[in-house]
């Protein structure tokens, strides 16, 4: 996995910590499974597409649990990682 992929994984795990305690294990496991499944991805545009998908999914989960705007700013870092690819 590229450096951007590892940075994205860290950001997702930081966002998971902002979720309600009872939901954290599910979303942490979901994130890990997805990042592990795509760790051997080689094409940069494929990685950028996955990072955009991680941002979209993270934003959806944050809004589902009505997490504050500060978390949305943190999720925007995922968007920046995807755009930088």
TrEMBL record:
Residues 6-55 form the Complex 1 LYR protein domain. Pfam families: Complex1_LYR. InterPro entries: Complex1_LYR_dom, Complex1_LYR_LYRM9. CDD domains: Complex1_LYR_LYRM9 (cd20269). It comes from the Eukaryota. Belongs to the complex I LYR family. LYRM9 subfamily. PANTHER family: OS01G0342800 PROTEIN (PTHR36758:SF1). This is Complex 1 LYR protein domain-containing protein.
